[in-house]
Amino acid sequence: MKQMKYVLAGALMLGLSVPAMAQQDNKAVVESIAKVIKSNAADADAQVKDVYKKNKKNPEVLVGIARAYFEAKDTARARVYADFANKAAKYKCAQAYVLLGDISAMGEDGGTAAQQYQQAISFDPKNPEPYYKYANVYRKVSPTVAVMKLEELRKQRPDVAVDALAGRIYYMSNEFDKAITAYKKADISKMEERDITEYAMALYFKQKNAESLEVAQYGLKKKPRDAAFNRLAFFNSTDLKNYDQALLYADALFNKSDSAKFSYFDYTYYGNALNGAKKYDEAIDMFKKALDQEFDSKDKKAGVIKTLSDALASQDKYDEAIKYYEEYLATYSTPTATDYAGLPQLYFYKSNNETGDAQKASLKKADELYAQLGEKYADAAEYATFWRARVNNAMDDEQKEALAKPYYEKLIELYSSRTELNNSDKSRLKESYLYLISYYARVANDMAKAKECATKLLEIDPENAVAKQVMEIK
C-alpha cells in the first residue's frame, strides 16, 4: 500500500499540466520523484524518464534524481544523471561533482573522489560541503593536508566554523591532541552537536576529565536527555572520583536519556561509581550485570570478571572472589605471572579470616599455587619463594616446625648472585634474616648462627635495632 502511495504521488505529479509543473519548485519535483525511485515501482524508470524529459536543462532537478539513485545504492544510474546535470550546466554543476565524488568515495577511490570535490570547489568556492568532503577523504592520507583544505574555506567563508570541522577531521583520524587544539579555537556555541560530542570524547580519551566534563555539561544544557552527553558526564565524574555526582548522571543515562543503548562498559562504570560511593553490594550487582552483556572480545570480558573478583575480595567475600578469579584466568588470552600471582594471594587473604582446619587448607592451597608460579615463570622465582616463606610462616607462627626456614634460606641464596639490590630486594632479605635470627635464637638456641645472620642483616641495614641487640649478646 505504501509503495502504491508513492507511485500514485509520482503519477499525479507527472500528470500536471506544463504551466502547473512550471509553478512547482525544483525541491518538490525532486522529493516526488525520489519517492518513486525509493518505492522501486515497476514503472519507476518510465516515471523518471518523464521527469528527465521535462527537466533536461534543469541541473538542480537532475542532480536531485542522481542523489535519489545514490541513496538507493544504484550508483550506475546516479552517475548517469549526475553527468546529465553537468551537461545541462555546461559542465559547471558543483553539486553534480559533489555527487560524483561521493560515488568514488563509496567505491574507496579516494583519489578520484578528491578530484571531483575539487571540481565542485572550483565552480562553487563558497559552498562548505565539497571542502569538508575533500578533507574527509584526504584525512586517510594526511589529516594535516586535509585540514589545509579547510583553511581555504576559511578565506571564502569566514562565517563557517572551520576550526570545528578541522577538529572533526583530526578526531576521525584518532589524532585527539590535534582535535582538541582545533576544537578549542572554535566557538562552542556555533558547533554542531556532533562536534561538541567529539570534543568531549577527545578530551576524555586524553584523560582530561575535568575539561571533558565541562564540555559534556555544556551539551546537556542544550539537550538534557542526550545519551552521549549524559554518558560522558557520568564517566568523567567517576574518573574524577566525584561519585555522588557520577551516580546522578548514571541515573540520567539509564533512566532519563532518549534512545540510549547500554554496553558492558556502562555497567562496569556504574559499578565503579557505586563502589566509590561505598555502595558495595550494589556495585557487585552492577558488575554482574556487566557480565550479562555482549562483549566483542574475550579479554574485555576477562577484565570485567577480574573487576568483579576484586570487588568481592574487598568485601571479604573470598570464596566468590576466588571463583571469579579462576574464571578470569581461564578467560584471559595471555595471563602473566602477575595475573597468576593474584590467585594464591586471595587464598592467603582468605586464611586471615579463618581458623583451624579451614585456615590450614587455604594456606596449603596458597603454598601449592605459589610453587606452581615459581615453576612456570623463572622470573617469578624470587617472588614465589618469598611468598611461600610467608605462607609457611603463617602455618607455623611459633617457628616450632621451621616450615618457612627452607624458603627464606632459598630466597637468600637466590639474591646472593645479585650485584645490586633495589628496595624491594632489601626488604625481602631483611625479613628473611629476621626470621632466621628469631629461629636460631629462640628455637634452635644457636646464638652463633643467630649472630651470623645478624651480621648479614647489618650489611644491608646498618641501623637495624634487632641485629644490633643480637650482636651485643655475650
Give me the secondary-structure topology.
Blueprint: H1 2-14, H2 18-23, H3 26-39, H4 44-54, H5 59-71, H6 75-88, H7 94-106, H8 110-123, H9 128-138, H10 143-156, H11 162-172, H12 176-185, H13 193-205, H14 209-222, H15 227-239, H16 243-255, H17 264-276, H18 280-291, H19 298-314, H20 318-331, H21 337-351, H22 356-376, H23 381-395, H24 405-415, H25 423-443, H26 447-460, H27 465-472
Helix pairs in contact: 1-3, 1-4, 3-4, 3-5, 5-6, 5-7, 6-7, 7-8, 7-9, 8-9, 9-10, 10-11, 11-12, 11-13, 12-13, 13-14, 13-15, 14-15, 15-16, 15-17, 16-17, 17-18, 18-19, 19-20, 20-21, 21-22, 22-23, 23-24, 24-25, 25-26, 26-27
How far do the termini sit from each other? 109 Å
Share of residues in helices: over 70%
Structural class: mainly alpha
Spans where pLDDT lies below 50 across 5 or more residues: 1-23
Number of helices, where a helix is a run of at least 4 consecutive DSSP H or I residues? 27
Question: Which range does the strand content fall in?
Answer: under 5%
Shape: elongated
